[in-house]
Each structure stands twice: as C-alpha cells, then as structure tokens.
Amino acid sequence: MHTRLTRHVTAAAVLPAVAVATLTACGGQAASTAAPPARVTVAGAQITRDAALHDALPAGIKDSDTVRVATDAPYAPFAMFVTEGKPDLTGLDYDLGQALGAKLGVRFAFTPQKFDGIVPAVQAGKFDVAMSALTDTKERRQVLDFVDYSVSGSGVLVAKGNPARIAKLDDLCGRNVGVEAATHQLQLLQAHQAACKAAGRPQIGIQTFPKDSDAQLALRSGKVVADVLTKPAAGWTAKTADGGGAFEVVNDPSASAGYGATPNGIGVSKNLPQLTEAIRKALQQLIDEGTLTRICDKYGGASIAVKQATKNGMVS
Fold first, then answer.
1. Out of the domains of life, which is the source (predicted)?
2. Domain assignments of the chain as residue spans, ordered by start
3. Per-run averaged pLDDT (10 residues), the chain, 316 residues
C-alpha cells in the first residue's frame, strides 16, 4: 500500500501501548513495571489474552512484555498523531497493533521512523516488526517475513452525491481528474489513457497537485470531477471531511479493494520466526472474531480486510 514515490514524514519518539504505562522503545523511554492488561477494547471489540499464543512467543519478547514496532507517521489512516505535536498515536495500523498485543499478552510499542528507514531498522534489530501499510513484495520478503492483513489499491473520491455519476475507472475518460504528483495513482491514470483511446473516448484530463489536500480542494470547487488516491485514504477522507458530508468513494464491484490492489502486511524480523507465527495465529483469531473488519471499517476501509492470515502469502 505504501507505494507513494514521494514521502514527507515526521519522525518523533512516541509512547505507544495498550495501557497507559510508559514503555521501553528504541528511543530510550522508561520501562513499564506493570503487566499488560488481560483485556483490551479496540474498535468496540473486547479482546482477551490467549495464553497459548503468549507461551509461544520468543523468550526475549516475553521477558520484556513488548514488541517494538516501527511505523511511518503521520500517514492517514494507518498511523496518525492524536494531537499535532503530541506523541500519542491512532490509526488502523496502531489499533491493529493494540489488538494483536492484547491477544499475545504483550505491548506493541510504536515508534515513528522515516519510511525509507523502516525495513533497514528492523533488519538491524532496532525493531521487531514494521507496521506501516507496507506492501508485501517478493523483494521485501528477502529480508522480512510478512503476515498480510489487508489488500488495497487506488480509490476514486467524488463529491457527495456523485454528481458526475462516476461508477468505474473508465468513466474518468474525457473528465478532469485530480491526483497527487509523483504517486502510484498518477501512474495508474497515465496507464489508463490507453484504455480510453482503445474505447474511442477522450483522454483523462489529469491535473496533478503537490498534496492530495490540494486535489480535494479542486474537487470541492468543481475543477475536477474526482480525486484518485489510495482507497483506504479515500475512505478515511470520505468518513471525516466535513463530518462525512463532503465526499464519497466510488465502489466498483470489479475492484472492491481498489484498482491495482496489492497485499499489505506486518513485516517481522527473520530472526524471530516464533513471533511471525504467533502474530499470524493472533491475526487469524481477530479475523474469525470480526475484529479486523471492525478496525478497518473504523477508518473507512472495511473492504480491505483479508479473510485469512498467511505467512509470505502462504497458508500454514
């Protein structure tokens, strides 16, 4: 999912936990002396510790009661600061981490990192896992093991009520469409020009903007009929902008997870195979209980939740 070619990331030490106690993370924060809570509520779901999964964790993680997590924040809706300038996090990845931690009986302690440094930091042993809408690719599997939790691609955001009656990507042919510059979504629109031509329709009037918020302004003013961005981000924007009254997402049944959808996963250090398997089993429980879908739906992306937890794309 993290396919943007240009990233602007704020890095800062944070206090992430399923409890209010202070945790140990890479930034040298003070260690908590309190045990992780036995029950946690995430996205309205009560999650209780699975003793067998906790017992299967690597010894070092059981001793510290902590899984160290690298993330890219802010990157809505996956990891966001609750208050600008404050360390507390929220978001889809953060909530999922808290739910997994509750299942495993440990804390998932999140620390923001620059996106391009996340994988190297896990490789170097500074973190145990990466949770950052990370696309599960063959190249990344060479250095991390992946437990996939979502499949998502690009979405189409339109004005509330969809006045231009956009139902699918083909409907953008001959229309002015906004998109953030230097993104995978721009490449998607450029590639679709051939389909417009083959159908005998005019080209898409692609208008690029420095930030997606600029594309949203163009959509508000009617300068474009749609804004193409990642589907989870589109869902979150539709859910939150003007209290949900400004935009809606085009739901094309042929691309329910978004156009060009790819799997996104939790990247785990290859030195911690026991942790990978414990996370996979915990995620499957969250899937079976409906909690994963509830977490994704909370951030406007219920359709991106996977139906089965896998390791590197394979069922164990």
1. Bacteria
2. 39-148+266-304, 153-259
3. 40 32 34 71 94 97 97 91 88 97 97 91 97 91 96 96 98 97 92 98 97 96 97 94 97 93 95 98 98 94 92 79
